[in-house]
Amino acid sequence: MGDVKAGGAAVKRQKRMPRAVREQQMLDAAVRIFGQRGYRAASMDEIAEVAGVSKPLVYLYLNSKEELFTACIRREAAALVAAVRAGVSGGTGGEARGEGSADRQLWAGLQAFFTHTAERPDAWVVLHNQARTQGEPFAAEVAVMREEIVAFVTSLIAEAAREAHRKPELAEREVAGLAQALVGAAESLAGWANGDASVSAKEAAATLMNFAWAGLGNLMEGRRWVP
Amino acid sequence: MGDVKAGGAAVKRQKRMPRAVREQQMLDAAVRIFGQRGYRAASMDEIAEVAGVSKPLVYLYLNSKEELFTACIRREAAALVAAVRAGVSGGTGGEARGEGSADRQLWAGLQAFFTHTAERPDAWVVLHNQARTQGEPFAAEVAVMREEIVAFVTSLIAEAAREAHRKPELAEREVAGLAQALVGAAESLAGWANGDASVSAKEAAATLMNFAWAGLGNLMEGRRWVP
Amino acid sequence: MGDVKAGGAAVKRQKRMPRAVREQQMLDAAVRIFGQRGYRAASMDEIAEVAGVSKPLVYLYLNSKEELFTACIRREAAALVAAVRAGVSGGTGGEARGEGSADRQLWAGLQAFFTHTAERPDAWVVLHNQARTQGEPFAAEVAVMREEIVAFVTSLIAEAAREAHRKPELAEREVAGLAQALVGAAESLAGWANGDASVSAKEAAATLMNFAWAGLGNLMEGRRWVP
Amino acid sequence: MGDVKAGGAAVKRQKRMPRAVREQQMLDAAVRIFGQRGYRAASMDEIAEVAGVSKPLVYLYLNSKEELFTACIRREAAALVAAVRAGVSGGTGGEARGEGSADRQLWAGLQAFFTHTAERPDAWVVLHNQARTQGEPFAAEVAVMREEIVAFVTSLIAEAAREAHRKPELAEREVAGLAQALVGAAESLAGWANGDASVSAKEAAATLMNFAWAGLGNLMEGRRWVP
DNA sequence: AATGAATGAGCATTCATTCAT
DNA sequence: AATGAATGAATGCTCATTCAT
Hints:
The structure is a homotetramer.
Chain A: H1 19-37, H2 44-51, H3 55-62, H4 65-88, H5 102-119, H6 121-130, H7 136-163, H8 172-194, H9 201-220
Chain A binds a DNA duplex through helix 3.
């Protein structure tokens, strides 16, 4: 335990660059180290080294380990939400612009989500695994982002129900539970896809759509599973 | 951060009891502290104090922090698996014994799972949140348990497919993905049910069955979601 | 600056002694180092070394630098007050027991004071110079002791005035100022006697009595200095 | 501890001013911060900020923390001595010029001393409390000034003895002790007057004259206090 | 005349771990 | 079966000081 090198080499020390740039380098390094070691196990020494600067500079710019971690969370949460938003309201590639039907939107969002988390695995670990287990200042930070996403999914499900103009068979509470489950499944799949199995973002998104959408469809038609 | 008391008082110091009993007290304390603080933030001092013994005794019986944590993981993983198994092949309460259809088995297993995690929230946090973020010796330990459960769910899905005697529309890889997603959704719901919302185990299980089973049914009938 | 060795050698490391004893050793070392270096410049490392123990033990027993310093102040303040009290109400050597006239009491107290501060110069520096310049938690601590002594001297002066059965020529405010000045002069002489000049406690006390008592006498007789 | 703001706001940053002026600003800031925090606890960062300049400029003009502190001591010592001198040989206000009798000179000097220290409390703290507790380079610096004052007081006492044309009853050693005690009493009163009590300079000076002069008078007449 | 960028070295504090009884 | 006494090795953080411009 403990002595595993955190992967890539330290940034070659380059002198005298503007603060904004250095700060991003530091955050890059911090996300990597926090992701690989965890909040407590990560040492400011290692982060500074990986960032290619001295420790005092990290403190000068980011004040404390706690604030540094918070800055990581904020940056990565914003990046993830932005990626998903862009996916939903853009079509990832050259696809047709404009907001499609609820299911297409969900599909696009899921693809964007899986793509982003696959591209930045350390960031995803920081958000999903580390931040949420380090108690209050941090868990709350991610919770904000997560609720944003859950709310979005909730609205998609509700819209879908409306589109299917079924009588309001789905109680609000139930919709919330479904959105939770869907987001939870996505989060779980993200870890799985990045880790053990090597599954493309598209595949992961398709699995989830098959799994979830059909089930949602059934529910909306009033067909429930009963014990 | 940092000064939050870990809840209940330390066990009243009682002298001279058999090793097996002392060990369980220590594991109880350790699970509680590890769950509330995280692996790194938990201190052997606090664990010993909560266990009502001196630190050297903890070392005498459990050798090191690492082994202590591992022992916690093993004990709690075994307990969780046992609880789910008992739920599946027993009917939780006075219900009919014997293995029912695949869906009823899943339903029983989910109920047992949600019940158990609700009863031992610290243990669940240790398994799901802490162990998986502390790098190799530990993540592997939980992975074993998780794979056992995923394998079990996989077999249930496969069996259900067989029961529905559809031609094998579902590739093995696809079944694996579905099981992952289902387990992931369950794990996510467990945290959600214990935490923010206060949802009964039965409710959580029902939500998941509705969500998943219908979707699985559709898939088995070859009805897929296509972009 | 800075590299001057703090005098005597570290206590030869002796293992395994009861906590109370170790604590006194630590306080001894701390008084010495704080006295010689000042609060901020003193390092816990050096204190531990001089005490002949490891740093963690110092923290185990005394919690923090702040508490350690406070403990020093309290111990030395108590010791000084006790010494003066003993001097006043005992006669330092084989002299007659029982409380004498006000002037004899003052004389005895001054002798005890100068003797004690000469015997424990570091302690005196800690109380008089260091503690009072390190801001609130500490200054207050010494102020308590000083007020005790000032109050005592005030009562002696008042008593002397009564003994001389003069009409109350001395306003209370004036008496307070005189006590302040007397104590201040004593404090100043203590530093001077221990430092530059080498003056015996008896000499110092005599100088002060000559200086102060006659002046007080004049005042009581209503003879004031007027511009 | 530690977070107390050092009072007034930083000087509004004004660019490009002559070196001499900037240096005085820096010394002003330094005296304030050294006085309030102590030598070690004062940070060059805070001093630069309060002075309204960047840190490198402080180093450019004053070279090091040590030299900066020394410069403060020198400036304030000179200012204090000058104030006392002016008081003695001038009469504070419109009073008659020319050197009066020894006692009037002392009276004038004391008034000037108490006035000056009351006007610049931080400077007095630097000289009396901080510099003397920071070891050699600094203690010596103040000692020079103090000796100057003690010598002056000594000469006044000797002159007074001559004026009283008594046979030389007072040994030189004794006179020195008396001067020490007098100066010590004055120093002590200065802290007391600025701090807890709010006593005017005139009051403080009068108290001391009453206290000291009469006693000295007695001594000169050969009336001593004997045990 | 003046500063933004950067660092070596030190310091208080904590923790897992062991020894002697 | 159990513990009071003790420590090596980190770790977060700060500070005086210096370049390069």
